[in-house]
C-alpha cells in the first residue's frame, strides 16, 4: 500500500511540473491547467488511501464538496476585469487554510504532539508548524487587503501610520516570533497554552494587514505575486510538519515560481522587493505638468481622424492597459487590428510586465480574443521599435507609458522602465477622462505635441474606429 501511495504522489508531482510548463504560453495554458488539476486529483486520492480512519474520509469529502461548491461559481462568473481580485482572494484562502491547519492540530493534539505519533514533537515539526501558522496568516489577511484595494472597497492609495509604520511592523513580527518561541519551549515539555498559538495567529494577521495597507495600487501586481509565493512556502512548511509529500512539493513549486515572478516584476519596475513592502509609490502626490510657466492642454481627436492616421501607417503598435480590461475591448481591438492588417498595416502589441492588475493580465485578455501570440511583444523587445512607428494606440495604459519615469528625477516612479511610446511619430490615447492612473501620478504624455486623446469607453471608441476604417 505504501508503495502505491508513493507512486501516486510521484505521478501527481510530475503532472504539477508538466502543467506548470504549459502555463508559459497562451496556446498551452488551458491544457497545462487541466494537467495540473488531474495531478491534484491523484494527490487527493493518494492522501485518502493513506488515511485509515474512515471517519476522516467523511470529513475530507465533505470539505471537498463545500470547496467545490464555493469555488466553481465565482471562477466561472467572474469577468476578466475582476480576475486579479479573484486570484488574490483564492490565494488568501490557501494561506488561511494552512494557518487553520496549524491551529487545529495544535488544539487537537496538545502542542503538536500528534504530529509525532503521540510522542514529544521534534524540532522540525515545531518550527515547520509555527512557520506555516505565521506565514499563512500573513498571506490570508494581506490577500484580503489586496482584494479590497483591487475591488476598490479600500483606497488604492497607501494607508500608513507615517513614521510609526515600520516600528509597528517590527514589533508585530517580534511578538509573533516571541510567542512561537514560548510555544516551542512548552511543546517540548508540558504543552503550551492555546492562548499562545492564538496570539501567534493574531499578531501575524495584523502584520499581514499592516504590510499591505501602505502599498499603493501601482505595486499590486507585485504584491499578488509575493503573497502567492508566501502561501506556497507556508504550505510546504505545513507539509514538512505533517510529513505529507504532496504539500511539500506543491508548496515548493508555488513558492519558487511565485518568488521568481515577484523578482522579475520588481526588476521590471526598477524597484526592490523590500522597497515595495516598505511602502509603494502608488497613490503618491500628483506630479505637476507645466511648460513655460503655463499648464499644458491635451488635444482631442475623433474616430475618423484616428482611423485615417492608422490606415495610412506602415506600423501600428497597440499598448493595452487596465482601461482595455475594464471596457472588455480586447475583441474589438482584435477586429480593428484585422481590418488594419487587411490594408497592409503591420500591427503589434506592446506588453509591459506590470500592465493591468496582475502578472500577465494583458496577455490573458488578448489571448482570449485570439490575438496571435507572436504579435505580443515584451517591453524589452518592442521599445526599440517605437522610434520608427507611425502610430501608437494606447488603450487605458497610464503608469507604464509615463515618460516622467525616464525624464523627471522628482517623479515617484523615476527609474521605472516604461514603454517608450512618446518616441513614436504619433500617439493616440483612449481614455474616459484625464484622470491619473492607478498610481495616482499625472502623465505628461497626454499633453505632448504628438499625442491626441480619444475620449470615451474604449470598446465603443475602438468599434467606432473600425467602422471608419471600413469606409476608407
UniProtKB/TrEMBL annotation:
<keyword id="KW-1278">Translocase</keyword>
<keyword id="KW-0520">NAD</keyword>
<feature type="transmembrane region" description="Helical">
    <location>
        <begin position="168"/>
        <end position="189"/>
    </location>
</feature>
<dbReference type="GO" id="GO:0005886">
    <property type="term" value="C:plasma membrane"/>
</dbReference>
<keyword id="KW-0472">Membrane</keyword>
<feature type="transmembrane region" description="Helical">
    <location>
        <begin position="222"/>
        <end position="242"/>
    </location>
</feature>
<feature type="transmembrane region" description="Helical">
    <location>
        <begin position="124"/>
        <end position="147"/>
    </location>
</feature>
<keyword id="KW-1003">Cell membrane</keyword>
<protein>
    <recommendedName>
        <fullName>NAD(P) transhydrogenase subunit beta</fullName>
        <ecNumber>7.1.1.1</ecNumber>
    </recommendedName>
</protein>
<feature type="transmembrane region" description="Helical">
    <location>
        <begin position="248"/>
        <end position="266"/>
    </location>
</feature>
<dbReference type="InterPro" id="IPR012136">
    <property type="entry name" value="NADH_DH_b"/>
</dbReference>
<feature type="transmembrane region" description="Helical">
    <location>
        <begin position="6"/>
        <end position="23"/>
    </location>
</feature>
<dbReference type="InterPro" id="IPR029035">
    <property type="entry name" value="DHS-like_NAD/FAD-binding_dom"/>
</dbReference>
<feature type="transmembrane region" description="Helical">
    <location>
        <begin position="57"/>
        <end position="74"/>
    </location>
</feature>
<keyword id="KW-0812">Transmembrane</keyword>
<dbReference type="GO" id="GO:0050661">
    <property type="term" value="F:NADP binding"/>
</dbReference>
<keyword id="KW-1133">Transmembrane helix</keyword>
<comment type="function">
    <text>The transhydrogenation between NADH and NADP is coupled to respiration and ATP hydrolysis and functions as a proton pump across the membrane.</text>
</comment>
<feature type="transmembrane region" description="Helical">
    <location>
        <begin position="35"/>
        <end position="51"/>
    </location>
</feature>
<dbReference type="Pfam" id="PF02233">
    <property type="entry name" value="PNTB"/>
</dbReference>
<keyword id="KW-0521">NADP</keyword>
<feature type="transmembrane region" description="Helical">
    <location>
        <begin position="195"/>
        <end position="215"/>
    </location>
</feature>
<dbReference type="InterPro" id="IPR034300">
    <property type="entry name" value="PNTB-like"/>
</dbReference>
<feature type="domain" description="NADP transhydrogenase beta-like">
    <location>
        <begin position="6"/>
        <end position="467"/>
    </location>
</feature>
<keyword id="KW-0997">Cell inner membrane</keyword>
<dbReference type="GO" id="GO:0008750">
    <property type="term" value="F:proton-translocating NAD(P)+ transhydrogenase activity"/>
</dbReference>
<feature type="transmembrane region" description="Helical">
    <location>
        <begin position="86"/>
        <end position="104"/>
    </location>
</feature>
<comment type="similarity">
    <text>Belongs to the PNT beta subunit family.</text>
</comment>
